[in-house]
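ok, trying the design again with the full structure, not the truncated one.
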């Protein structure tokens, strides 16, 4: 709970969601409607009606939460204190941009966190009021880490607002020499290249789970189109010998009673698949998947399944 009062909310317009694309309020809009908080849902936050809305309710401070639009200067500077704050899901200046959580996992970072910063014209470049640090779990994926960071962000925002209200906040400018950027993740970046190391591939699986998901091609079945396999959970199995591994993408079937019955050879080590999803199917544990979709020792996943005509 907070002693501060939400005087009004500007949110995105209702959008089509789910399979039926039924127009549904954003979670923030739903919260405002449920509590009778004044709510505006403009197509563009810089429109005159947004300025008029803020002029009417005269906020002391603005808080931005996953808004998804560029916020122009008149809106940024409208509150009595002259600025807005935002909670970014990284330890700034590392991983500015659209996909900081995925970027931390792809980079193999051991820790991440939340940075509460002032909103400026340049993305994620504002001075930082406070940070909250958390270690990344060994097998944590983007979905799990997002939920944890969301809770941490709420706590951090409340603490920052208290500090601002009590005039005890200290703003720290970001070090421009340490800036890194996290571009928006595209679906095609989920394609697994088996020539990479098992460690790097495991990171990619975690970074893209649950959506859009890492993927590879299943072995071709004669007379049927190539099928895709989404890989939602996998772990690295280091090579136990100095003997050379089979070619990347080579499948190694182990006993069904083993905890990891399917390994894939990579450029360095093995990747053991744990949770997968066939095109149009449901997410399954690999042992359940293999009972209905047998894969054989020595088959290949990925580009090696293509024919000469496909290349």
């Amino acid at each position: 709970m907070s002693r501060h009062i939400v005087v009004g909310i500007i949110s995105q317009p209702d959008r089509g969601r789910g399979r039926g694309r039924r127009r549904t309020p954003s979670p923030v809009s739903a919260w405002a409607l449920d509590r009778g908080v004044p709510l505006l849902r403009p197509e563009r936050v810089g429109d005159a009606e947004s300025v008029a809305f803020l002029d009417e309710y005269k906020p002391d401070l603005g808080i931005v939460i996953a808004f998804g639009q560029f916020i122009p200067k008149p809106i940024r500077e409208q509150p009595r204190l002259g600025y807005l704050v935002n909670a970014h899901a990284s330890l700034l200046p590392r991983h500015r941009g659209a996909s900081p959580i995925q970027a931390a996992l792809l980079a193999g970072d051991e820790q991440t966190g939340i940075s509460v910063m002032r909103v400026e014209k340049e993305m994620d470049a504002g001075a930082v009021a406070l940070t909250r640090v958390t270690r990344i779990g060994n097998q944590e994926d983007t979905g799990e880490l997002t939920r944890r960071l969301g809770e941490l962000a709420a706590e951090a925002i409340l603490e920052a607002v208290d500090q601002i209200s009590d005039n005890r906040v200290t703003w720290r400018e970001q070090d421009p020499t340490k800036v890194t950027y996290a571009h928006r993740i595209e679906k095609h970046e989920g394609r697994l290249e088996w020539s990479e190391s098992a460690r790097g591939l495991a990171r990619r699986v975690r970074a893209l789970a649950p959506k859009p998901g890492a993927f590879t091609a299943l072995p071709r079945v004669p007379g049927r189109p190539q099928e895709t396999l989404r890989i939602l959970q996998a772990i690295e199995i280091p090579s136990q010998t100095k003997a050379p591994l089979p070619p990347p993408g080579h499948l190694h079937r182990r006993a069904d009673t083993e905890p990891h019955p399917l390994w894939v050879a990579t450029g360095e080590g093995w990747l053991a698949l744990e949770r997968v999803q066939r095109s149009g199917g449901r997410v399954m544990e690999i042992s359940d998947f293999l009972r209905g979709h047998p894969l054989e020792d020595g088959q290949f996943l990925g580009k090696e399944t293509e024919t000469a005509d496909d290349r």
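Keeping the full-length input from now on. The radius of gyration is 24 Å.
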